């Protein structure tokens, strides 16, 4: 896999400061922001919201990085991420959108702040806390001073001292007995950086006598998911424990399986495009990517750096969007390849929930291999086995798919998208 600028910059720093040897000897290594800045901007070098974003050298050596002040960081074999497992059996609770609100558009919540504002005005925060609440804080602030224990990958313990590190809180909501700190993401994620909840938790635990509730929030595929945690031992970074997950959706006309079948029967078949056949098994991630492109055109680096995609996934998922006619790429004035929504992609992403997902289903089923697999599902009542899916794909003259191994890999996408279509009525 090609190296990123961040990978190259960290290689220079690892060599210059003998970082691996220092960690082997002392168990950790402190590095100043000004030392990082000699090679590259610290904000691009030290903030990795997801494990997938970590530089190559960090992944290879089981390392991670945490800020310990405004001007320094500590590198060690620390366990800093928490895996996120979405409970797919959870039916989202329907909430009504207030009819007299005109400054929030519930069909266009493509920034974290707009998703949080919408969640608040529809009463989701109150339902999570179990009592009325007000938004009282957001933005950047200082962590003040505190110590904590953190677990290393080898199971040992390290004591770390934090002194006025900068923290950022997406939303703080206070009720009579509780104070909820929310870290928000506008996408489905595999994990998150515990620091984004832990540092604010430690700060506000000292400043209020109310129960501080750390909450990780995602808005993805029209579903608002709240992961409510507790730190069972406030002095330990790794004592995070999931208490509950609560999902919400803004009330809309229900999507039935009959609607999907109606779309299937009415669909206009398109010619297979001269774009690689998709290798992107998770259709919700494609919907996330379309959402990211609503407000801004993005480069491959933008997508990889700012969202829970690695370089390879960014390539696969942008390509899948292009296959469906929802994303297109162009070269900007700086000769950088950029991705944007097509006219159809933009129209679909502005639709209300039911219409949006039915149109996305039609985009999939307008391609012959998917249409044929769905037709067989309707006939037999189960998604065809992988071998049968490959047989169908081989009849469809796919662009640049010839080797058996490629057919096998791409068939997983067909099955993944079929399961997504079939499951839609259970979610929406």
The low-confidence runs, each spanning 5 or more residues with pLDDT under 50, are: none
Shape: globular
User: What can be said about the biggest beta sheet?
Assistant: 7 strands, mixed
With helices defined by DSSP (H or I, 4 residues minimum), what is the helix count?
17
Strand proportion, as a percent range, falls in: 25-35%
- At CATH level 3, the topology of the largest domain is Arc Repressor Mutant, subunit A
Overall number of structural domains: 3
Q: In whole angstroms, how far apart are the ends? A: 38 Å
- Class from helix and strand fractions: alpha+beta
Task: Write down how many β-strands occur, each being a DSSP E stretch of 2 or more residues.
Answer: 17
Taking all residues together, what is the mean pLDDT? Answer: 94
Which oligomeric state applies?
Answer: single chain
Strand order in the sheet with the most strands = 5-14-13-12-10-9-6
Estimate the helix proportion, in percent.
Answer: 40-55%
InterPro entries: DUF6996 (IPR054265), DUF6997 (IPR054266), DUF7226 (IPR055650)
Organism: Anoxybacillus andreesenii
Domain DUF6997: 76-249
Domain DUF7226: 285-425
List the main descriptive attributes of the protein structure presented here:
428 residues, alpha+beta, Arc Repressor Mutant, subunit A, 3 domains, 7-stranded mixed β-sheet, 3-stranded antiparallel β-sheet, 40% helix, globular
């Amino acid at each position: 896999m090609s190296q990123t600028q961040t990978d190259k910059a960290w290689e220079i720093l690892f060599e210059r400061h003998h970082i691996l040897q220092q960690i082997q000897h002392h168990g950790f290594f402190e590095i100043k922001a000004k030392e990082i800045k000699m090679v590259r901007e610290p904000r691009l070098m030290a903030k990795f919201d997801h494990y997938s974003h970590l530089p190559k050298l960090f992944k290879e050596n089981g390392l991670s990085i945490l800020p310990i002040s405004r001007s320094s960081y500590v590198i060690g074999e620390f366990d800093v991420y928490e895996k996120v497992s979405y409970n797919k059996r959870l039916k989202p609770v329907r909430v009504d959108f207030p009819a007299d609100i005109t400054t929030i558009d519930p069909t266009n919540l493509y920034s974290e702040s707009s998703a949080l504002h919408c969640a608040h005005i529809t009463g989701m925060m109150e339902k999570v806390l179990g009592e009325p609440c007000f938004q009282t804080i957001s933005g950047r602030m200082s962590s003040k001073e505190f110590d904590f224990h953190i677990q290393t990958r080898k199971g040992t313990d390290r004591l770390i001292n934090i002194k006025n590190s900068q923290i950022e809180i997406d939303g703080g909501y206070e009720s009579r007995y509780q104070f909820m700190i929310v870290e928000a993401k506008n996408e489905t994620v595999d994990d998150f950086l515990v620091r984004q909840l832990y540092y604010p938790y430690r700060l506000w635990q000292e400043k209020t006598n109310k129960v501080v509730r750390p909450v990780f929030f995602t808005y993805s595929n029209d579903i608002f998911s709240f992961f409510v945690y507790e730190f069972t031992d406030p002095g330990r970074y790794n004592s995070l424990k999931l208490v509950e997950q609560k999902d919400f959706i803004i009330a809309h006309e229900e999507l039935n399986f009959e609607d999907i079948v109606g779309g299937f029967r009415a669909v206009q078949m398109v010619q297979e495009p001269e774009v690689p056949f998709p290798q992107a098994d998770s259709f919700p991630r494609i919907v996330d990517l379309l959402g990211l492109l609503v407000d801004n055109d993005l480069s491959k680096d933008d997508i990889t750096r700012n969202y829970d995609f690695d370089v390879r996934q960014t390539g696969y998922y942008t390509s899948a969007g292009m296959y469906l006619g929802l994303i297109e790429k162009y070269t900007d004035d700086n000769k950088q390849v950029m991705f944007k929504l097509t006219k159809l992609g933009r129209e679909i992403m502005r639709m209300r929930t039911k219409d949006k997902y039915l149109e996305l289903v039609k985009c999939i089923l307008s391609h012959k291999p998917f249409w044929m697999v769905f037709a067989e599902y309707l006939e037999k009542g189960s998604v065809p086995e992988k071998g049968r899916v490959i047989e169908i794909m081989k009849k469809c003259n796919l662009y640049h798919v010839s080797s058996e191994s490629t057919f096998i890999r791409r068939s997983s996408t067909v099955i993944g998208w079929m399961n997504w279509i079939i499951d839609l009525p259970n979610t929406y």
